[in-house]
Specification:
Blueprint (H helix, E strand, L loop, with lengths): L2 H28 L9 H10 L1 H35 L1 H16 L5 H9 L3 H25 L3 H9 L4 H39 L3 H11 L3 H29 L23 H23 L13 H10 L1 H35 L1 H15 L7 H7 L4 H24 L4 H9 L4 H37 L5 H10 L3 H29 L2
Helix pairs in contact: 2-10, 3-4, 3-6, 3-8, 3-9, 4-11, 5-6, 5-20, 6-8, 7-8, 8-9, 8-10, 9-10, 12-20, 13-14, 13-16, 13-18, 14-16, 16-18, 18-19, 18-20, 19-20
InterPro entries: MetI-like, MetI-like_sf
Pfam family, one: BPD_transp_1
Family: Belongs to the binding-protein-dependent transport system permease family.
């Protein structure tokens, strides 16, 4: 264990002690009813009184996360290896990567619940779906970012493709692989808990829903803290595994283990858009052809594409209005969160000591699922658009802050020495720093757009009464699959458009 790692552990412990002390002091000073703001003692009492129930729900959720996340990691790693070693697999798998990246995956949750029912299978499927993308993309990036000289040496001695993969590509890919694991882990936790929150009868998500409905705020805090602890425990386990198998310094970057490595798709934005459109078109044609031979009972779960298109056309005004509401909530929340994240991340990145103190805290905080905040918002705030925008801002903040902090610290030493030698004014130095920061900043913005749009849908499910998210959930609860699939399609198009807009802006500004 390095000295830096020890110091970071002590810093984290000190932060937790300070937060607990601040919470205790605020509860005593404000003297609010426990319904609104319980003290740590009241939360501890509620935890002790319900320890057995909490433990059972945690074990249930942890098992679901382990199965879904484990399968997603296995699928992602296998697909990544296939893409690297096989051009055919790359051509087939690339459109799948594009669709999974550009479409907010939370959109698939109601669809999977319709198809598979509110079962372990649907929760596992969504966990696999959200997990495999960051793993496969990070692993592909790692496998392709290798020392070509070492590969050439092995080729000259007749090493097979598998030997080159095993002895060079895989070891060199480990940092990127672990980055993908850390990005995927909190997403898997969030989607499993969200599925339990919506339709589950067991697990942390179902317990959060029931506790919030009874306004048992101390117990609600206990469950939220337990969920945060579960997420951070998974984060810590991955970091410990990373430290055990890596031989270089795992503390070399601000955005270590969870930076923006898994944010970007390879290829041009236009190519990505065409690949996504072609994939959707081919899937729709196959879906329409197969639906002709389906028994009619299956239309309750899987309506034909032409039926979904008819719903979109017949109720176009409804979807236009809901779409405008969704975009408004996203714009307000994402704009506020991104501005704060950019400012704080830039300060952290420009101050080396502060970067060492808060860099890891940013990453750890991003491992907390957004859904953990929803029950507290239901208790603290009035349900409405402003509360929804606040949830979106929280989701958007961390990826931008991590990207800005990482990017602001990436000015090469040689460039820094040249600027000092010519006495460049501070604003010129900042302009040069901005040039080197743009790639990481835009990668963080892409992650932020996806996280913010996902949070917008979640916020509309629980904190508002309007928007595409409401239509999506309404179609599922009312067993109106055409409405559900139509809302999912519009959300997918908007999500891809937002991601594509950021990618296009990046290509214009990055030089």
């Amino acid at each position: 264990m390095t000295r830096r790692t020890t110091n970071r552990g002590l810093l984290t412990l000190a932060s937790l002690v300070a937060a607990l002390a601040g919470w205790t002091g605020a509860a005593a000073l404000l003297d609010l009813p426990a319904l609104l703001f319980p003290s740590p003692a009241a939360v501890a009492e509620a935890f002790a009184a319900n320890a057995d129930t909490i433990a059972g729900n945690v074990a249930y959720t942890a098992a679901e996360v382990a199965v879904g996340w484990g399968l997603g990691v296995a699928v992602g790693a296998a697909l990544a290896v296939a893409i690297v070693v096989s051009p055919t697999a790359s051509r087939v798998g690339y459109p799948v990567l594009v669709v999974v990246r550009l479409v907010p995956v939370v959109v698939f949750l109601p669809l999977l619940i319709l198809l598979l029912g509110p079962t372990l299978a649907s929760r596992t499927a969504i966990a696999v779906l959200v997990t495999f993308f960051p793993v496969v993309l990070a692993t592909v990036e790692g496998l392709r970012s290798v020392d070509e000289a070492r590969l050439a040496v092995l080729a000259t001695v007749g090493a097979s493709r598998w030997q080159r993969l095993r002895y060079v590509r895989l070891p060199d890919a480990l940092p990127a692989v672990f980055s993908g694991l850390i990005v995927s882990a909190p997403i898997a936790v969030q989607t499993v808990v969200l599925a339990e929150y919506l339709v589950g009868n067991h697990g942390i998500g179902a317990a959060l829903r029931a506790t919030a409905a009874r306004f048992e705020t101390p117990l609600l805090f206990a469950y939220v803290l337990t969920l945060i602890a579960l997420s951070l425990l998974l984060f810590g386990a991955i970091r410990a595994a990373e430290a055990a198998v890596r031989w270089d310094d795992p503390d070399s970057g601000v955005a270590e283990g969870g930076g923006a490595v898994a944010a970007d798709l390879p290829g041009r934005p236009t190519t990505n858009a065409l690949a996504a459109a072609a994939t959707f078109g081919a899937a729709a044609l196959a879906w329409q052809a197969v639906s002709a031979v389906f028994p009619r009972d299956l239309s309750v779960f899987l309506p034909a594409p032409l039926g979904v298109l008819g719903t979109l056309v017949d109720t176009a005004g409804l979807f236009v209005g809901a779409g405008a509401t969704t975009l408004g909530t996203f714009a307000l929340g994402w704009g506020g969160g991104a501005i704060v994240g950019l400012a704080l991340g830039a300060v952290v990145g420009l101050l080396p000591r502060l970067r060492g103190v808060l860099g890891g805290q940013f990453v750890a905080a991003r491992s907390v699922p957004d859904v953990a905040i929803v029950p507290l918002f239901l208790v603290w705030f009035r349900v409405g658009p402003s509360t929804a925008a606040l949830l979106v801002a929280v989701a958007a903040f961390f990826p931008v802050a991590v990207g800005a902090a990482d990017g602001a610290g990436r000015l090469p030493a040689r460039q820094r020495d040249v600027l000092r030698s010519v006495g460049a004014p501070w604003h010129r130095v900042l302009a040069v720093r901005a040039r080197y920061a743009l790639p990481q900043l835009f990668a963080g913005c892409k992650l932020s757009v996806v996280a913010g749009f996902t949070a917008t849908v979640i916020a509309e499910w629980f904190l508002t009464s309007d928007g595409l998210g409401v239509l999506l959930l309404q179609g599922m609860t009312d067993t109106n699959p055409r409405l559900t699939y139509a809302a999912a399609f519009v959300l997918a198009v908007l999500g891809m458009a937002l991601y594509g807009a950021v990618a296009a802006l990046q290509r214009r500004l990055t030089w």
